[in-house]
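Quick log. Single chain, no ligands specified.
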Amino acid sequence: MPLPPFLSSLPDPALWWGPLFTLSEWAIRLTMLVYVPQRRAPAAARTWLLLVFFLPWLGLLLYALFGRIYYPKSRSLKLARINRGIEQLRTRISHELPQGPLPDALCQAGAGLIERVGSFAPMRGNTVTLMDRYDEVVAAMVADIDAAAQSVHILMYIYAADATGRTITDAVLRAARRGVRCSVLLDALGARGGLKAYTDELRHAGVQVVPALPVQSLSAVLKGKSARFDLRNHRKIVVLDGRVGYIGSQNIVDAESMPGLPNEELVARVTGPAVSQLQAVFLADRYLETSDRDLGAADFPPLAPDGPSIAQMLPSGPGYGTQNAQMVLVSMIHNAMRRVVITTPYFVPDESFLQALHVACYRGVEVHLVLSQRIDQRFTQSAQEAYFGVLLEFGVQIHLYRAAFLHAKHVTIDDTVAMVGSTNMDIRSFALNAEAALVIYDREVVKKMVRIQQRYLADSDTVVREKWAARPLRTRTWQNLCRLADSLL
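-> predicted structure:
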């Protein structure tokens, strides 16, 4: 059938399509060259511009989805209200608990910064028990849930439909049937297996089940009405009766969730006034999802001193407007005098974190980085390995743990500061995920964490600078290519 006259008069598409496409690509490149660097770190801007210049249309689409940390205004306003409530709670608590100076200048500087960027003040009178045996953590949680009389609150990134998930779910069901108020807040993406398997059963027993950061439609994300789907709630917190708390790296999932690569974790069991801060983080996250302000008497019971440790919560995430966990760690590394030991499964640092490690080594501080020899994300592993050369040049000692997938996330600074929680030492944890860590100012707790770290070192291979420099060119090239995407990880 012949074309209509007005179409037949147009030039052959083969003649104008190519130039038009080329023109559109250059329009994208030039526009993004102006737009991307605005309010972005130089390294992140370089990563995105490199992608856009090589693949303009694909880069534009990916940037629309992942390039900016879309955090809805409604959630920001809620978080501001939460922080005002925490300030009021802190004022009340300060009159009820013993006060006094922190052990040294490092602790004082760190605690002051955390209070300014994370809202929580250091609290005296806590007992912090470090637990590094997977099954013991599960057993202790079940025992404490079974002992709960008022409330059970669980916030998890991964909650799997496996034996461990079944064990914890059964304990929560038993508590609900005793009349205990139970709330389970689970990341909608990370815990999708557990949500699908257990939600109906838990809700039928009267348990409140709340998916955190549910994935919205693409149009809602692009319009800025929903958080990006890769902004996740990565926290792991359990609070029982407002008196016993757990915080650390361990999810509710079998240790052998990856065949041949068992997880090894570190969790802190806490009693004392600092549990109120864990509780506040849980209730704040629940409020962000549900606007639920319903608090029972068990949520914040009288806060009596229960031990020798000073502890302080450090929540972080895109809603805080700054990378506060990264800021605190960089500050503490700069203030370290003797020794820094960092344990993390994922290490993809930004320039300021690298510089802090560099300066620490030049000042004579002993810096150790403990990583897993095998991890569950090959691309990320190659990206972090690209940093080994420069770290070894600085004088950082890198240890690769052989025995398991070392998923634990903790830090010791000198002899006085320990940090344990869900925060990885990578750009994703610092900028995108909602994380939580407990900072402890107690020499005895630090000694216990150092003993755990020494066990890691005894079962690790130390990376030798000369051997690392001799790795094949193809390996080095692949690692450096992966590193180019560090801001996307």
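The chain has 19 helices and 19 strands.
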